[in-house]
Amino acid sequence: MTEKMTADQVVGQRIADLRQQRALRQDEFLLMLKEAGLTWTRSVLSRVESGLRPLRWTEGISVASALGVDPKELSTEQNALSELERKSHQLRIKRNESLAAKKNAESAIAAANSLLSVLIATMALKADAAASFVVHASPVVFVERLGSALRENPFDEFGPLNSAGEDRDKAYGLLGIVDPDVEWYQTHDGPPEDPDSALMDEYHAQASEFEEVSLLGQFAEKYPNVRFSYHNNAAHVVIDGITFEELDGR
Question: What structural domains does the chain harbor?
Answer without folding.
Answer: 7-78 (1.10.260.40), 107-247 (no CATH)
